[in-house]
Amino acid sequence: MVEENPPVSSGITLGGNLRPHLGNRVQLAGLTPGSASQYLPAMAPNLTLKVTRRLPTAGDVVAGVGHKVESDTIIATTRISGQPQIFNLAEYFGVTPKEAVKFLQKDVQDTFKEDDIIALRKGLVGRRQYRAPFDGTLSALDENGGYISLTPRARPYNLEAYVRGMVVEVIPSYGVSIQLQAGYARGAFGFGRERHGLLRVLSTNPAEPLDPASIDARATNFILLGGSYVTAESLRRAVELKVRGIIAGSIHEEELTKFLEYRRRSQFYRVGLNNWRFPAEPSSQESPFTLVITEGFGIRPMANRLFEMLVGHDGEELSLNGQTQLRRGLQKPEIIIPLVTTGGANRPAARFEGPLVPRVGSVVRLINPTYLGAVGQVVSLPASRRGIHPGQLERLAKVDVQGTTLVLPFADIEVLGQNDALPGAVSG
Amino acid sequence: MQTRFRKIESVLIADCGSNTTRVALVEVVDQAYRFVARGEAPSTLEEPFPDVTIGVLNAIRAIEDTTGKRLLSGTRLITPQKEDGSGVDAFVASSSAAEPLRVVAAGLVKDLSAASAARASHGTYTSVLGTISLDDYGDDYSLSAGSSAPPASFDYDPDAEEMTSSPFAGLKDRAVTPDEPEPVVSRNKPKKVRKNRVAPASWKERQVAKLRRLSPNVVVISGGSRGAKSNSYRKLVDVVLEANRQEKILAITTGETRRSSSLVFAGPKEAQEQVLEQVAGQCEVFPVDTIRPTPDRENLNPLQAQLAAIYQERLLPNLPGYRRLSEMSHSLITTTSDSLCLITRFLAKDVEANRVLTADLGGSNAALFYADAQDFTSMVRGGFGLSFGLSNVLAETSPDQLRRWLPFEINDEELIHYALNKTLRPHILPATERELFIEGAFGREALRVLMTELDREAPAHFNYNRLIGVGGPLVNVPLWQTALLMLDGLQPSGANESGLVELDLDSTMLMSAAGSLANLNPNAAAYLFRYDCLHRLGAAVIVQGSGNPGVIAAKVKLRKRNGQLKEATVPFGSIALLHLRADEQATLKIQLQSNFRIGSSKAGALVSTADGTYISGGALGVIIDARGRPIRFADGPETRIAQVTHWYNVYREALKQAEAEGSEDFAPASGPSQPGQPGGLLANSATDEPASLRETKRRGFSLGRRR
To answer: Which residue among A154, B355, B381, B638 is least crowded, i.e. fewest CB within 10 A of its CB?
Structure first.
């Protein structure tokens, strides 16, 4: 009698503690790594960026220095083997490991097709066999434990440029650095791998939510811009209609957990080593679209500065990456808007000086929970360093938000720009 | 034998937290080690500055700015101290910012051995990922003995089902590259799908799968008093070896380096040898003394020491910039929890009858340490705190629990979003009163959760008479808020014999510094701790019992040594503050009403300070807490808000009353003492005898009881 194979024990480690693919990074071009000025601002309409793209394993780099690449240009290729799976032969045949090894029909490094017989035991009464669950290679053998390891056949993997720009550096066998003039914005939270697409603005102002009804067939393959919040329904429609990305100001925790299908909401709150734990890891490459939330959780508008910058690029191509890691390899979602078609390459890049410290006149985004999503302008920097926390000395800024003056610690504001009149604000 | 320590004139002590790096300068002043200045800077752990020493240097620069003393030349510390006074003789550091040790606790019986292994593992910064035991059914909680939900002491919720149902679950195949052509084979001849017969996984298979999924740094196997059957250990050790073996073969296949889980075996001596024999070099084993020498006694210390050592050796070096920091340092870099633990034990031994509970509330870690003359217990939780750890605090409490503490109406979403947004941006500070209150509510709940877990460890309720608050969230708020936060979160019931709890605050944030200094020079550490560390808030008298809200619980008479008399009537459900300056002493007489008692006194007794003894004051004075244990909240939301508002306003009202009485001695207690301003001996009662209240034996008293 021939027995069927039991399922091979999965070799995949679940949980949100896998680090996102850190081979890719965005930094300011032409600056020494490690210097203070390497720090990217929260938002800038025009920067010279250097985007490094790396393969997860060594392969062939196709692009060369000086090549102009589009977002979807393949710059490097390799083959990625699937996650190997291990199987205990000794247990399967009910013999000692040493004996089990003798039943093997393949050698280490032999390839096999699905359903090929890998191990066979002929007995007096019948035969029992172990058939391959997939195409692959017998990658290792553990004679002491009776384990075999099966690696699925390697699949071709193409690394796209992700952004439009010019290759300025080649990392042999691994990837390239691409330089470009671009608008840049950093989000607060998101998931989904690097994607690019054309922007479609679906909200008329930063306080308008992304209406699920407005996501229709025309949204397919686009990156959608919503103003304030997105709902689980919008996210589900985005999956149905194969939307590439969504940028929105905020998301209600209930909607997110509903979309991610948590049965108990409190499941979501647990933070692992460096991120929230999602079911099936949406920060990996599996998520169907890329989500970038710019402000945070709640029902909050998008910072109007940022919304205006994005609206200005309606219909243009942009690249975004939703991968988020909260600590130990901090990573925040990013939005990159290549400026080549709008003549950005000819425009001089805005001079960027070091980490942006608030100054009088700075336009700042308010990031403390009460005022999240609001944008104000620094009117003065009081000499006093005692805020609401009497024990903590902190640098404070007086910020004018639509006529109301608030005193906020530096930690609670993020500079978006300098010395511009705030739209609708009382000057002074 | 007397040990000679290096002569040190000046020392810098750094503590790298997950949010803030603090550096303290300690120098010899008048032949004693005194605190001179403190510098703070944001911790630098993440891109673009993944090196703790950058934050340390920034904090040192802040000290240079305030003192004018030159400490750095470029990015190098000037050491030893020069003739012109620049530089320091030594530098020591501690940190709480490294990632927690991932622990799986294993034992023979889930409720007993595995549970105590889990508790023991909370001696240093650990995440207890789960337990495996002989009566456990792997990931399937519905089959497990005991509850259907994983207990709160697990830092991760290993609910496997939750992980499989996902909107992304079916999308795996289109993952790698969207353009990849479909495999031709499957399209041309659709194969008969074979139904694999799913064999039910054995206990071992399920445990191995669970262990591999959790992928711990350390598996702690424990349990068994002397003479326990060692066969049972074999099964547990087998699981660990099997999981390691599977990881190893995967590592060979993929070429990745995977560190196998180490094994800490806390069992009887005979079993230790057998385990060593069984493992036979297949993985790292650390044998330690059993944690249950007899079925009813626990001894967690050897295991905790071993885990702390593993943490120090394995995890602490993962701190970005650890190498540079250890090059700067003159002694081994310690963990903040070790430093606090050392000082807590020192304090318990230093003063007779002192039983100390230290509560450390940080950004991503929180801890409780209890020590008396004989025993020591700790509960350290990694990833559980008020900034990065806030989301985890939320997961272990509920909006309803949080709302209780707030003097205003608030909906669930505001509380939840507060925690999630703070986790996204851990560095933000409260900017409004409301945020400060919300933060306070989270702090109370964090302490409550910790205390519940610590209590589970003790046979009886912890009988401490001194409570010390440590950490930014406690120090940076007004003193009354700090005192309330500690009283609300931990709900001390007062020492049995006196009914009193002395409240202290580590307002100079030197406590962990003193602990790290002790490695280099214990005398200096003791000096520093005695004179500059603690800020005494006062004594809290806990009136226990119950009654209708508003019924009088106690009548209090406080007579200062200068003869001044203060009286107060404290109704049940409220709290009162009698001001007594730090340099003042007084006698206290409390007439309890029936149903109410203090410490181990009889209900309705008259208690007072013993003849010739006095109660010392503090920055706040004497607090009479008559809210019952556990604190009872009024039923309706409006009355509850009024009740909580009253608690928050007690200090303001006491201040107002003091003004009306014309006594100008009410110290402004809006903030901790200025750095550099030593508290002085009187303010610091570390060396004082703990005050005590006792039931008066004189005749006058029986009257009260008869009534």
So the answer is: B638
Domains parsed from chain A with CATH numbers:
25-79+159-338 (no CATH), 85-153 (2.40.50), 363-417 (2.30.30)
Helix (H) or strand (E) holding B325: helix B322-328
Of A22-36, A327-341, B160-174, least confident by mean pLDDT is B160-174
Find the closest chain B residue to A156 by CA distance.
Answer: B180
User: Which of B177, B171, B182, B173 has its CA nearest to residue A72?
Assistant: B177
Nearest CA distance, B193 vs chain A (angstrom): 11
Q: Do B420 and A269 touch (CB under 8 A)?
A: yes
Mark out the alpha helices in B425-521 (DSSP H runs).
433-457, 472-475, 479-490, 511-520
Nearest C-alpha in B relative to A16: B163
For the ranges A207-216, A270-279, B32-41, B320-329, the lowest mean pLDDT is seen at A270-279
Which residues from chain A sit within 8 angstroms of residue B37, using beta carbons? none
The C-alpha atoms of residue B452 and residue B490 are separated, in whole angstroms, by 9
A267 with B159: Cβ contact below 8 A: yes
Residue B68 contacts residue B62 (beta carbons within 8 Å): no
With CA atoms as reference, the chain A residue closest to B18 would be: A327
At B255-291, the pLDDT tens digits run 666 677 888 888 888 778 888 888 887 888 888 887 7
Q: Among all chains, which residue has been given the structure tokens 């965005």?
A: A26
B602 Cβ contact list (under 8 Å, min separation 6): B695, B705
- B248 dihedral zone (left: phi>0; alpha: psi -120 to 50; beta): alpha
Residue-range domain boundaries for chain B: 10-95, 101-157+202-318, 334-706
- The DSSP symbol for A256 reads H
Residue B429 near residue A409 (C-beta atoms within 8 A)? yes
ipTM value for the complex: 0.85
Burial A233-266 (b: 16+ CB within 10 A, else e): bbbebbeebebbbbbbbbbbbbbbbbbbebeeee
Nearest to B166 among A3, A149, A261 (CB): A261
The distance of A5 to chain B (nearest Cα, Å) reads 6
* Interface mutation vs chain B, best among A286, A372, A386, most B CBs within 10 Å: A286
pTM: 0.84
Cβ–Cβ gap A328/B45 under 8 Å: yes
Residues B30-60 pLDDT 10s: 888 888 888 888 888 877 678 889 889 989 9
Per residue, the 3-state secondary structure of B17-79, as one string, reads: CCCEEEEEEEEEECCEEEEEEEEEEECCCCCCCCCHHHHHHHHHHHHHHHHCCCCEECCEECC
The pLDDT assigned to B175 comes to 33
Angle in degrees, CA A268, A269, A275, rounded to 5: 85
Structure tokens, A280: 């099936």
Fold that domain B10-95 belongs to in CATH: Nucleotidyltransferase; domain 5 (3.30.420)
To test the contact with chain B by mutation, choose from A12, A228, A256, A271 the residue with the greatest count of B C-beta atoms within 10 A, namely A271
Q: Which chain A residue has its CA at the smallest distance from B202's CA?
A: A91
How does pLDDT run across B637-673, given as a tens digit for each residue? 888 998 899 898 888 888 887 777 765 555 444 433 3
Enumerate the residues of chain B whose CB falls inside 8 A of the CB of residue A142: 245, 248-249, 252
SS3 A272: coil
The Cα A348–Cα A336 span in angstroms is 17
pLDDT tens digits, B443-453: 999 999 999 88
Class of domain B101-157+202-318: alpha beta
Three-state SS across B288-321? ECCCCCECCECCCHHHHHHHHHHHHHHHHHHCCC
Phi, psi at B283, each rounded to 5°: -150, 170
> With contacts defined as CB-CB under 8 Å, which chain B residues touch A39?
48
Contacting residues of A for B49, CB less than 8 Å apart: 34
